[in-house]
User: What shape does this take?
Amino acid sequence: MTPFTIILQDMSHEWHSDTALSFIGRDMSGSFGLQANHETLVTALVPGLARFRCREDQRWLFIAQPGSVVQFFGNTLRLATTQFLLGDNHDLLLRQMDAAWQAAEQTLRSTRRSYVQVEQALARKIWEISRQGGHFDAAG
Assistant: This one.
């Protein structure tokens, strides 16, 4: 079987192999598979697991991702996402993915709360200045 290159990229790192034999992912139309010399393809994976097999040991490696763009062109598959986890233990990877995404969601909620608090403090300060007859000039 002819191999192809697979490149996984997120905001903090990149992983690649030149010995991928097959890739299975899922987009909004359902599951699909790719092998070497597949026609050009661009699609968006739904959040969850994708998998691929490499020539070295023939085992499946799983990619946990929160949604990603996949491009297959020139016998190279590129998967770009904000974050991915890679491993051969399906169940462990699902638990890690869930924990990572819950932590990210908590960070997002905390950031939103902080943003609202800053916005409210700024509005109060502007109100106090205007109430005292001062002039607020946003340009400085």
Remarks:
- The chain has one domain: 1-132.
